[in-house]
Design a protein that fits this description.
Blueprint lengths: L1 H5 L3 H66 L2 H9 L2 H14 L4 E6 L4 E6 L10 H9 L5 E4 L9 E10 L2 E11 L2 H8 L5 E6 L2 E5 L16 E4 L2 E10 L7 E8 L1 H51 L14 H38 L6 H50 L5 H10 L1 H33 L7 E3 L1 H11 L1 H4 L9 E5 L6 E3 L1 H29 L10 E9 L3 E8 L6 H4 L19 H12 L3 E6 L5 E8 L2 H8 L1
Parallel strand pairs: 12-14
Antiparallel strand pairs: 1-2, 1-5, 3-4, 4-5, 6-7, 6-10, 8-9, 9-10, 11-13, 14-15, 15-17, 16-17
Amino acid sequence: MINRYSKLPLAGKILIPILSTFLGMWTVGTVSVGYIETQKQAYELQRETQNAAFQISKEIAAAQRLLGFKAKSITDVAPLTEAVAAQDQQALLRLLLPLKASLELDLLKVIDQNGAVLSDLRSSVVGSARLQDAEIMELAQKGLMVTSIVVPADSMAAPLLIKSLSVTSKQDDVGTIIVGYALTPAMLEQMLGAGRQQLVLLQNSTVIAATLPVSSSVSWTQPLPPAVRIDKAAYLSHTIELPQVADERLQAVVLTPLAAFQASQRQLWLLVGGFGLLGGLLISAAGLWVTRLITRRITELTKATQKLADGDLAVRIPAEGCDEVATLATGFNHMTEQLKHRDRKIKLQLEKLEQLVKELQQMPEQVHTEKMAGLGQMVAGIAHEINNPVCFIYSNVPPAKEYVQDLVNLIALYQQHFPEPPATIQETESLIDLDFVTEDLPKLLDSMQSGAQRIREIVLSLRNFSRKDEAVMKSVNLHEGLDSTLVILGHRLKAQPSRPAIEVVKAYGALPRVDCFAGEINQVFMNLLSNAIDALEAKMADHAARNAEHSSSFSPKIWLQTAPHGNDWVTITIVDNGPGIPEEIRSKLFDPFFTTKEVGKGTGLGLSISYQIIVEKHGGKIWCEPQPNQGVKFVIQVPTALSAARSHAK
C-alpha cells in the first residue's frame, strides 16, 4: 500500500487523505444520526407496547373490581341468602336469572357450604364447559374470596374472568357465589382500546384467546423474542403474567405491528444515504478544487525548471500569493534572470576569445611569440571576467537548491499527512511523474553548478594553451626527449596497489638530429603518453571489476618506435593495448575541447595543442590508426629541418 501511494501523482497524494478524512467524518456523522433516530423510534415503539400491556393490566383489574361490585350486589339480596340456606334451587333460579341478565354476566354460579352446585347460569360463549370447580370450591369452602382468570377445560370455550364471594346468614357462611366475564376477542379488543396493538392469551405457551388469527405454526414458548412473525407479518411483543386459580401459567402477549416502523426505517436510511451521497460529492468537489490549486502551481514550476534545463533562460513563473510556492517562484525567477545575464556575458567573452584564438592561429611565425604573450595576459583577464559571473551563478544555485528542497519537503508533508489521495490526484501525479521531477530537479541544479565549474577549468586550459614555449629552434635528439618524458611519467608507469606496472617497449631506430622547438615537441610526447596511460588504467579498472574473484591476465604495454622516413623526415610511433577509440569519433580527436574522458579529467585540448605544434609550427603530420586487437596507434612525422617541410609542402 505504501509503495502504491508513493507512486501516485502529487494530486492523488493530496486529495486521497483529504477525502478520506472528511468523507469518513461525514459518513460517521450521518450514520450516527440515522442510528440515533432508529434507536429513538424503536424505543418509542417499545414504550407504546409496554403502555398497551399496562393498559391491559389496568382493564383486567377494573373488570375484576366491577365483578366484585356485582357479586356484592347479588349477595346483598335477602331472599338469595334464604334460598341458599334452604338450598331452594327453584327460588335461586327465579332470583338469579334477572340478575344475570341485568348485570350482563357470562357466568353466575352458586354452591353451598359443602360444595354442591345450587345454580349454574352461563352464556353461550361459556357453554357447558367444565370449569376448574375443584380448585374454586376448595378456596370457597375455606371462606377465601377468589379473583382470577379461569381457563375452561373445554378448549373451544373462552377463558373467564371470575369473582367469588361468600353468602352469609346470621354470621355464618351458607354458600359461595361465583360471577364472571368471558374474555372473548371483542372484549379483548375493548380492553386494548383504539390502539393498533393485538392481544394473545396463553396457557402454558398455548393460545387460548386472541384478537387476530394465529397460525398453529407460531411458537409461543417463553421467553418470546422481541420480534414475533405471524402470517408473514412482524410484531413487537411484550408479555405480562395473569392471575390463575390452578398452578398452570397464564400470560397475555401484547403485539405491536412492525410494518409501519420498518417502512419508517427504510425511509430514514434512504434519507441518511441521500445526505451522505450529497455530502460526499460536495467534499470531493472541494477537495479536487483545493488539490488543483496546489498542484497547478507546482506543475508550472516543474515545467519551467525543465525549460530552464533545456536552455530556455527566458522562462518565468507567476509569483502568486505569499506562501512557500510563491517564494520559490520568486527565487526561481531571480535565478533565471541572473543566469540569463551571466549567460550573455559569458557568450560575449567566449566570442571574443574564439575570435582571438582564430587570429592567433593566423599570425605569422615571426610575431607568434609576442602575440602568445599578449594572449596569455588577455586570457588571464578574460578568465577573471568570466570567473566573476560564474561566482554569481554559484551564489544563486545554492538558494535555488534550498527553495527546491523546501518544495520537496512541502510535498513530503502533504504525502505524510494525506497518505491516501483519490484516483484523480493519482492520475495527475502519474501524468507529471512527480517522483522523477522531485528527484531530477536537484540534479539539474547540480549540473548547472558543475557546468560553471567546468567553465573555469576550460578557461584555465585556454591559458595553458596560449603559453607556448618561448625557446629558440635548435637541433635535438628526439630519443632524449622521449626518455625525458618517460622519466617524468615514471611514477605513473610503476605498479600501483590496484594494478600492475605498465611495460614500455622501446624500438628506437637510427634517427638524425631534428631542428625543432624541443620543449613543444616534448609536450606532444607528454600528451600522447599521458593519454595512453589513462586508457590503460581505464581498461585495467574494467578488467578488475569484471574479474573480481580471480586475477586478470591483462598486461598493459606501451610501444615506442622511431625510424627515419626518407632522407629528410623521421617517424615516431606510440602504440598502447588499451580499449581503443571507436571509428565514429576518430575524426574528432584533434578538435579543440573534444575529449572521451570523464567529466573533470580532461579539457579536450591536449591533442589539439599537439596537432598545432606538429602540423602548424613544425610542418609535420600526426594521425591515429586503428589497431586489430584494440588499442591506439598514434604516428608523428616531422622534417629534420624546416626547409624540408617547406619543400614537401611544395
